[in-house]
Structure formats: C-alpha cells, structure tokens
Amino acid sequence: MHLLYEEGGDIKVATVQSASGSGDTESWQATSLSGKKIKLKAKEVWLRFEKPEPQALMDEANILSKEIDLQFLWDCAPDEEFGLVDVAQEYFGSQASIPQQTGLAIALQGAPVFFRRKGRGRFQRAPLEQLQAGLAALERKQKELEQQLAWQQELVAGVFPEVLKSQANQLLFSPDKNTSAYKALIAACTESGESPAQLMIRCGAIDSPLQYHQGMFLKAHFPQGATHDPSLAVDQAGLDAAISELPLAEVTAFSIDDSGTTEIDDALSVTALDGGGHRIGIHIAAPGLVIAKDDALDRVARTRMSTVYFPGDKITMLPDTVIAQFSLDEGAARPALSIYVDIDAAGVVDKETLQLRAEMVPMGSNLRLENL
Known about the structure:
The chain is an alpha+beta fold. It has three domains: about 1-125, no CATH class; about 130-220, no CATH class; about 235-370, no CATH class. Helices cover about 35% and strands about 25% of the residues. It has twelve helices and 15 strands. The protein has helices at about 55-65, 70-75, 85-90, 100-110, 130-155, 170-175, 180-190, 195-200, 210-220, 235-245, 295-305, 320-325; strands at about 1-5, 10-20, 25-30, 35-40, 45-50, 80-85, 115, 120-125, 255, 265-270, 280-285, 310, 315, 335-345, 350-370. A five-stranded antiparallel beta sheet has the order 4-3-2-1-5. Helix 1 (about 55-65) packs across helix 4. The longest helix is centred in the middle third of the chain and has 29 residues, at about 130-155. It is rod-shaped and about 125 Å long.
C-alpha cells in the first residue's frame, strides 16, 4: 500500500513497510520516494492506494496539476470548507482516479491565492476580495519578472538600460537586493561570467575602474554620502558677532598653494623689524570661532577630521559655504589664528618673542605654485 501525505508544503508519496493500530490511532512505518524512512500517523495521510506505483503516480500527477483551471475550480468550489476527494469528484467526475486526485492535491496546495489550507487534505476558497488582490499581485510579479529578463538580456548584450542609469551607483555600491534591477544585474553577471563592476564598465554605466574604486571608498568611509547637509551654514549675523572684536593685524599675508586649491587654510607674513631681523607670521583660518562644542558643524568636522584629497577631486571637511566665509582669500581681511616669532639677521629664532592671537589678517595675495 502507498500513502499520499504533505511535508513542508509539498505533496509526497511513501510506500508502507508495516502498520500498527487502527482507526484514528493507526500509523505506518514507510519509505518515501527518496528512500527516507518515515513514520506516518492516520491524521497525516491524505490518500491510501495500491496502484499506480509512486513514481509513475507523481510523474502523471505533476502534469495533471498544471492543466487544472484554478479559476474554474474556485468558481465551482463551495463557500464552506471542503475535502480533496469531494472536490476531485466535482471537477473530474465521480470516478476520479488516484493520479487525478493527487494532481488536484498538488494544484490546491500550490494555489494559496485561490484556496486556504484548512488541515489535512481540506481547503476553503479564498474570499473574492482576497482572490482579486492576490491575482493582481501575481500579475505585478509576472510583469516584474518579464522586465527583469529584458534588463538581463540588455546587460549581457552590453547595453545598460536607460531607465536604470540614474540607479547605477546605487546598484553597484549600495544595492537593494530585493529589486528587479539588482536581480537582473546579478543574473546577467552569472550569464556573462563577469563581476558587477566589470559588466557595468563594459556597458558604460561607470567610466572606469578608478570610478569603481572611488565609489567603494565612499561606501566604506562615507556611507551616508559625502555631500554636506545644505542646512549646515554660518549665518552672517553670527559671523559678524564672532569677529566684531578681533583686532586687525598689522601685516599683509600671502598663501602658496597649487591652482586647484579652493580652501586657503593657511598663510604667511614677513615683516621687517626696526634694527634688523624679521617677524614671521603663520596664519591659520579660524572657522572654530563660530563652531560650538557638539553643534552640527562640530560633529561633522570631528567625524570627517580633515578634507580628503584624491586625484582630480576632494571631499571637504566643512561645507563650501563655511569654507567661503573663512578661506584666506586675497583682497580682504580674514579671521585667523596667528602665530608670530622674531628672527634676527642670521636666522636665529628668538623664542621669547613668540605670540599667539586671533585676529583679522589682511590677505594680500594667493600665490600659485605654477606661477612661481
């Protein structure tokens, strides 16, 4: 004798080796199609039969299950709970065969949108509203799968889908692995034997390996993005109040940087002294004058620690608006922290003359290395 049962949501068949008990307490030692030894209780068994043989039964039943019209079956099913044998006789006729009943069991078990499972071999059709919602979801899923396949084919062919171009960086560096776009990318990579970066470079979605490595750097060190929050700023009134009492330095300072430097954060001054020698000034831009401990700008500055420089670009520690307010640009006096020390004509430093103060430093020139 053979037994039809359900395990892990799948319909299976086992061949009885021995039996014990009777009625509701009956149980069997059986061997599954895979050769696994199992014990089944009466409450777990859907059907008992002698023929056909298990493998032949499952082969035929799987084919029949795909031919069953689930919508028609739902239309014909009663509102109340029903059993497998009853609905099989309604669908196939009073002489429904074991393969037909098994095929129907597979179809019902695999159609939760149409039928709710109510226990061993028993079901109830889903309410109309639930059915309509489920069918709409299945239709959306099918369209997503079709779109995913279309994108996959384009990617393998070396064409990056136009609609995905705005998502290129996200797909490569911070993907949502549940999206159709990511699944299409991974499927295309599997088919082509490339990594996502290699495929996207071939498709022109990213320009070069350099862009990829820069993107990986940003993902590792700036996971929230390298762009500053637009709200991070110093209002003019706050700046004016911070520098209103700073003295004006009696020097004219200059900076020396390459032409790509836009944030001038240090400068020098040299002043001749009466009686010989010179006073050397080192002037450091002082945005700290308007940054309070633990305020938004302080948190950003402490997190970033410094500006990040790399070939052709940089990621600034502070927002551009704040840099513009404190950069030691030529043509105006800028707030700075100044250090002064005197040296004699022989270049010997007089440590007793060391001075440190905050002041407004007149900037005479921003010299560029290329022009020196």
